[in-house]
User: Fold these one by one.
Assistant:
Number 1:
Amino acid sequence: MQRPLVTFVLGTRPEAIKLSPLIIAFKASEKVQTRVILTGQHIEMVTQVTNIFNIKEDFNLNLMQHGQSLTFITNSILNGLDAEFSKNKPQFILVQGDTTTAFAGALAAFYKNIPIGHVEAGLRTGSLDNPFPEEANRRLISQISTLHFAPTKNAYLNLINSGINKENIQITGNTVVDALKIIAEKDLKNKCNEIYSGGDYLILLTVHRRENWGENLKNIIIAIKKIVQFHTNISIVLPMHKNKIVRDILKNELGENPKVILTETLPYDQLISVMKKSYFIITDSGGIQEEAPTLAKPVLVIRETTERTESIEAKTSKLIGTNPDNIFKEVSELILNKTKYQKMAKAINPYGDGNSSKRILSHCLNFLKI
């Protein structure tokens, strides 16, 4: 009897991080065949991650173009996966999160009548266009998925409230904790020193999301300049996203500031090393909101909304928006108020125990009746 084929579709760095431990678990199983398809939505940023986890793709759509639009990405993935699924039709596909790759991958499978598993299902902000287009993507994926792997109880309840049959939802924890456990077993001692080995308090800052382009980014930069001018014992490491809309203004405004260390996008293991050395983190990243509690690092979220409500409720992170005065106030409080800092650092991680991949594999095998 031929083993059923399970295909993973991924295209961005966050997907690669969160699907890598799951791909490893599936490849270790003798009950299924596994195929890994990259869309090319991101290129270097994805292969940095897959190389760390020793994962080789079976096929790459290589769709990435300079200045690519959401329409171009979606159309290219649909066309590419139509041909892929015709040639190598899986019995099940897995997508992760809320990217355009995840949405188009799920839609391509739906058109071929292929069952879909949605990893990290059920995240919601309640605002359809914030973040854009991610909130719409994840809602749309939920409507056509077969199995929904919710990372938390809140995500489970969001799916129930969306009309999803509870029999098709499993609470699994978040696979990002699995990824962190794998990386934590590696020797990371010198990874941060390649970026920063000074004596100041170190803050990691990441900013890249579409809703923070333009005026919001300018406001964040105003706050950063004020922070490093006022708090002379602080240095900031800022890995720059590949998107020129973000990196050009960061270089122009912060490139000559001795207290701000601009770097290229960091390989995942090096990013984790910097996170471990950081005093706390300022970010608009969803993944870092999940990773930081595992490392006992407080997070200030420079967004107006977040779908990671569990970390807000657990007080491991705080939503502070992009007003420069408010960013300065919140950062200063964490630097100066040790009691507040310790409460955030010692809060319990709400995102799982590192066994999410095993649970998802088990549920998929049950669905496939093997």
Number 2:
Amino acid sequence: MIIPALDLMNGNIVRLYQGCFHKQRIYSNNPLLYLEKYFQQGAKIIHLVDLEGAKNPTNRQIHLLHKLLRANQHNNLQIGGGIRSTKDIADLLKLGAKRVVFSSQGIKNPYKTKKWFEYFGSESLVLAIDIRMNSTGTNNVVINGWQTNTTTTLQEIIEQYHNIGLKHVLCTDISKDGTLTGSNTILYQTICKTWPDIKFQSSGGIKNLDEIHKLRDTGVTSIIIGRALLEEKFTISEAISCWQNA
């Protein structure tokens, strides 16, 4: 399906360029307005990212997230950014989040993360894997709001959780994020073929409707789209129709 994305910083909707916090553009100071507009246009799920929390978990925009959850009647929000504890997840799910997205803890604290799958179930959790492709072709995972490089590869982190019921994975090639330069279709073809039982969400680089056709063919189950929708390159209904007819 098509999943619109809203990245939140200081209460505003913003987009970063290739994950750089100093390369951001503000689109609106009214996230609630965009939530309602996207649902009215046909979105079934909306992806929210607390960039403040991703950068520094002590600065999570808790009040804003709670406000959006309480005001949203659709109960179809997927929320991530700065998730560090069991309480973080429990609070968001209790308020009506459909799924909670985590990233850094999957690398830094696998024991605790595996307990989350046991406690909350795989349907309520999304493992976000953000990668930086290097010159040798290796895709290393980056954490802490894309500020910290690791030596862990995409393949290693998926295998670590695959056998305990990992179901939803959001994979982003950060060199594509916010660029409107096209998606890394080869990456998605590879991972969808390797782990056909995992529901992969692609993210980063969508520039036009042709990209949706290409990504649907890779085997991903969802496409997250941010900047292209904010800049009205196409509408949500057009994207949904393209996905359905791909």
